Amino acid sequence: MSRPPRIVLATRVFTPEAVAAAFREEALVRALEESGAEVTVLTTRPPRGVTGRDRVRHVSRFPVKRDHQQQVRGYLCYMSFDVPLALRLLLRRRPDVIIAEPPPTTGLVATVLGVLRRVPTVFYAADVWSDATESVEGVPAPIRAAVRLMETTSWKRAAKVLTISPGVDDRVAALIGPRPSLTMVGNGIDTDTFTPEGPQPVEETSQGPYFVYGGTVSEWQGADVFVEAFARVRAERPDARLLFFSEGSGKEALARKVAEEGIEGVEFRGRLAPADMSRVLRGAVAGLSSITPGLGYEFALPTKIYAATASGTPVIHAGEGAAFERVRDADLGWASAYDPAAVAASMLAALAGEERPTSEHLRSWTLENASLQGAAERAAEAVLEAAR
Fold it and tell me: pLDDT tens digits for 81-97?
């Protein structure tokens, strides 16, 4: 190809929106631009109150319906992005490859437009949405079947399917069969933003030791185990606090639970910008991560683990599977069963400093194993291969 490859990324979330998918996609675009590609991001306007300059060259934003938490979540919100996306992809200059980020509806739009315009597609499979849908009670069977069909169709038609962990890669292969298009690129955190060095959280630390849960609160994360455990911790350590910097479908229910049961020391705050999140994590006793057992998500590796370790802070993970094994085997903190008593024991051990890994170990492990920049470079290489 004599000219630079032309690439379009379709994603409902992008920086400065502070979510893991936005950081992952921005890192991919920057890696592609550094390789000489011409990349256009088709995305949404940021949530109300979120500001920041784009750090990539070409970003096209369009209004979108958001829920009361300012998230693009739910079928109406997805359609408010996907329907205009179809026209945006149809009317623009023909690219060499289209990259699609979940949800599956966006993947299907990109797949159909790719077929119509004879453009290869790349699907970024950071999650298995159809598994998540099947784990949620009350979702009608036809909806579950439709989500599965959309997702697997996008994967099968894609020139490349980028997966973020061996667990996700294995699950995708189980659903569509092993194929050369599956490319495990890994995942991680922006280690230039999340660092042990920088401003200290003086205001937070002056009020006593605290734990941090940052990110989405939903059924499959099961963060309520930390609230139940913390009620036990407060009986022994009344100075301890539990801080949630989050959003998600389960946040309001969790806040109601805390209020109804009168659990003191738990605070619910909004999501923070990455640099602010790293600052808060630096002063924390531990970052918190969890996966609800039995919902089919044991393969997941939450990015919140890497946010903490990159900031030099250990992790308490509650649950089974890949994340439990990673925290345990890499000595990243305390790997606990998904049980309030077991989690409380881990939280008390963290408060006492028992078997606490050093900040230096956590940082060096993250740089070597969970750098978002490294994952983005591998993803960019796969995208460019599809564009040839």
Answer: 999 999 999 999 999 99
